[in-house]
Amino acid sequence: CPSLPTKGAMMDNRFATALVIACVLSLISTIYMAASIGTDFWYEYHTLSPAENVSEAGRIIWEEFVSKDADEKTYTDALFRCNGTVGLWRRCITVPKNSHWYSPPETDMTTNCISFSLSDQFVEKYVEPGNHNSGTDFNRTYLWRLQFLLPFVSIGLMCFGALIGLCACACRSLYPAIATGVLHFLAGLCTLGLVGCYVAGIELLHKKLPPPEDVRGEFGWSFCLACVSAPLQFMAAALFIWAARTNRKEFTLLKAYRVA
């Protein structure tokens, strides 16, 4: 039948286009996830006059903020007062350069960051932040731990899916693309879970430690990158699975036609 080669070529082009688009979406989502994990703008606090706030308390705020013994309440109060930003791995505040007890407020500001240690990621959260005798707040504790683990699981699943995809290219087969699609779907669920855990954690924290009236809080662009990454992963998963399943169906029908 002379029309079969043309039809087969059209099918191959359609599958190839779907796979190329899926690979591009997967690459973009991986870049977005890596950028969101490595940056410190998941949540931002904006204070009306951070320089004045810092000069009133002197160096005590900075010393408590950088202390290894700083508890959740201590560094959260500093974030409120000093235009703080929080990431998955670091917390940052904006302070004047060379601030002293005797010096007037400076307009020349600098941003200083402190990293969360690995033990900080798994430390217990308390019902009353800063009060170790108030008992463990299990909801916030496990939300904090999940928001640390889920992004790495998501990136790991996508990398494993990419490895399977390379094997599929070497074997010149679309069948392994189903596994790649499933892994991307699971990665999207992890990213979605990360976003949900982070939002829930912030809301629960603000119920315990409400920001002052002159402090405005908002989710930052690092958080937005994670939000965008999730639908990209789902779209890539759908394209991988569609291409593999449809190609298998077309191949089965074509084989049955030739046998007949």
What does it look like?
- Pfam families: Claudin_2.
- The chain crosses the membrane at residues 15-35, 148-170, 182-201, 221-244.
- It contains 8 helices and 5 strands; from the N terminus they run αβαααβββαααβα.
- It is of the alpha+beta class and 260 residues long.
- The chain has helices at 3-38, 50-57, 60-66, 72-81, 118-121, 138-171, 177-208, 221-259, and strands at residues 43-47, 85-86, 90-96, 109-115, 215-219.
- The chain has a 5-stranded antiparallel β-sheet.
- Mean pLDDT is 80; it is low at 1-11 and 250-260.
- The chain has one domain: Butyryl-CoA Dehydrogenase, subunit A, domain 3.
- Helix content is 65%, strand content 10%.
List keywords for this structure.
260 residues, Butyryl-CoA Dehydrogenase, subunit A, domain 3, five-stranded antiparallel sheet, 5 strands, disordered N terminus, disordered C terminus, transmembrane helix, CLDN1 protein, CLDN1
Strand order of the largest sheet: 4-3-2-1-5
So how many helices?
8
Helix-strand sequence = HEHHHEEEHHHEH
Helix content: 55-70%
> What is the subunit arrangement here?
single chain
Number of domain modules = 1
